[in-house]
Structures are given as structure tokens and as C-alpha cells.
Amino acid sequence: MAKRALILFAHGARAASWAAPFERLRDLTQARMPDVCVSLAFLEFMTPQLPELVAELVRSGIAQVTVVPVFLGQGGHVLRDLPVMVEQLRGAYPQVAISVVEAAGENAAVLNAICDYCVGALDAP
Fold first, then answer.
1. Considering Cα of 118, then 32, then 64, then 1, what sign does the dihedral take?
2. What sign results for the dihedral spanned by CA atoms 52, 96, 86, 30?
3. Which among 12, 24, 38, 52 could disulfide-bond with 30, CB atoms 3.0 to 4.6 Å apart, if both were Cys?
4. What is the value of pTM for the model shown?
5. pLDDT tens, residue by residue, 20-53
């Protein structure tokens, strides 16, 4: 069985505290999938950035990488920047299967979960 990795890809920010919810998401995801290497990568401002993380994963023997853009929408970073990075990574590591799924906020289940949270906010103390 090929060694697999799941990369949660977020924008990044100058404030270190910004990453806390993404780190919790990474940890929750890792707990559900102990046989998969779950990592967090950033577009800018924070480390690791996607190219460096993929290089590290490849060195560790990962053969399949799935990138999950943890963005609410498919803006310029997801539509333009990420595809360029992924194509460069595919060229650098042709032995690794690299795939990208839709932005988290574009997924119906994610939108429904956010909707549930918003609706529940009316009854919050």
C-alpha cells in the first residue's frame, strides 16, 4: 500500500495565533486517519509552505498527496496560485500522485455544517 499524505492548505497570516484553528483541524483529521500523514501548509507568511512540505514528504517516502484547500471560496489563490504550484510539484516529483480537491467552503457538507452553526447562533447565550 502506498504511503499517503493529506495536506490542509491555508493562506497563512502574520499573526501566529491565526493558525490555531487550522492546527486543531489538522489534529482532528489526523486522529481520524492514523495511517495517513496529515500536515498543514501555507501559501504565505507562515511555514511550512507547500513546496517545502511536499519535498519533505517525498523524502519520507510518501507516494500519494491530496491537497485540501482550507479556503471558504475559490478565489485567486485557489484558482491561479495553487494550480501553478501543484504543476511545478508534479514536474519536480513525477513519481508522486498529487491531487487537489475543491476548496472546503465549496463543499456542500461543509456549507451545511457552517449553516447549522449560524442557525444555532440564534439560540446561543
1. negative
2. negative
3. 38
4. 0.92
5. 999 999 999 999 999 999 999 999 999 999 999 9
The answer to whether 101 touches 70, Cβ cutoff 8 Å, is no
Pure H helices in 45-107: 50-59, 76, 82-92
- Domains of the chain are 4-123 (3.40.50.1400)
Average pLDDT over residues 67-87: 87
pLDDT at 58: 97
- Residue 74: pLDDT band (50, 70, 90) is confident
Q: Is-contact 64 3, C-beta < 8 A?
A: yes
Q: C-alpha grid cell for residue 14?
A: 502574520
66 neighbors 96 (Cβ within 8 angstroms): no
Other residues' Cβ atoms within 10 Å of the Cβ of residue 50: 21
Report which of 4, 2, 45, 3 is spatially closest to residue 22, judged by C-alpha positions: 45
- Cα–Cα distance for residue pair 58/80, rounded to 1 Å: 24
Could you say which DSSP state residue 47 is in?
Answer: S
